[in-house]
Automatic annotation (TrEMBL):
Residues 120-171 form the RNA polymerase sigma factor 70 region 4 type domain. GO terms for biological process: DNA-templated transcription initiation. It holds the Pfam family Sigma70_r2. Keywords: Sigma factor, Transcription, Transcription regulation. This is RNA polymerase sigma-70 factor (ECF subfamily). Belongs to the sigma-70 factor family. ECF subfamily. GO terms for molecular function: DNA binding; sigma factor activity. Residues 19-87 form the RNA polymerase sigma-70 region domain. It comes from the Bacteria.
Length: 184
């Protein structure tokens, strides 16, 4: 008896619905294990089945069984979603200098405030350890991606991401009084 997956790979697109029904539960469990959030896991499972639809013919039975392949895709989709959310968090830090952009460029007080704020941001950066300061400057002022920074410095990407997170936390804490002073 041929599986739903084999029939789908052979061109029977109707078998895909049965394949989804068969593997949604295990794929969801794999995604929840990575994400620890059922609503995010649902999103990852949807992404996984889109990938399976697109890449089903790439499956090689000589390299493993269909269940392992499908669950690996679900797990990878969950990891991708986790990474995407981490990048979004890094980019959304509210202490980035752009938050303090001038509302009215002709307002003298705004110019003074921007200058003082810029000085405070530079001072907060200088208070960071050199390796954290370096990755912040490369990522946020030079626009380099963590993977590129890691290659240049000859370090694992995870180390670069950890340094970025730690530095951003320190900057957020250091700049909290500035942010509070600017809030109406």
């Amino acid at each position: 008896m041929t599986s739903h997956f084999e029939r789908f790979r052979a061109g029977d697109t109707a078998a895909f619905d049965a394949l989804v029904a068969e593997y949604t539960g295990p794929a969801f469990a794999a995604a929840v294990q990575v994400l620890r959030d059922p609503s995010l896991a649902e999103e990852a499972v949807q992404d996984a089945f889109v990938r399976i639809w697109q890449r089903g013919r790439q499956f090689d039975p000589a390299r493993g069984n269909e269940r392992s392949w499908i669950l690996a895709i679900a797990r990878n989709a969950a990891i991708d979603l986790l990474r995407k959310r981490a990048r979004a968090f890094e980019r959304s830090i509210d202490d980035a200098p752009s938050v303090y952009a001038l509302r009215d460029p002709d307002d003298t007080w705004q110019l003074v405030l921007a200058s003082l704020t810029g000085d405070r941001v530079r001072q907060a950066l200088e208070e960071l350890p050199a390796e954290q300061q370096d990755v912040i400057v490369r990522a946020y002022y030079q626009g380099q991606r963590p993977v590129d920074i890691a290659r240049e410095l000859g370090l694992p990407e995870g180390t670069i991401r950890s340094r970025l997170r730690l530095a951003l936390t320190k900057l957020r804490d250091s700049l909290a009084p500035v942010r509070e002073a600017l809030e109406p």
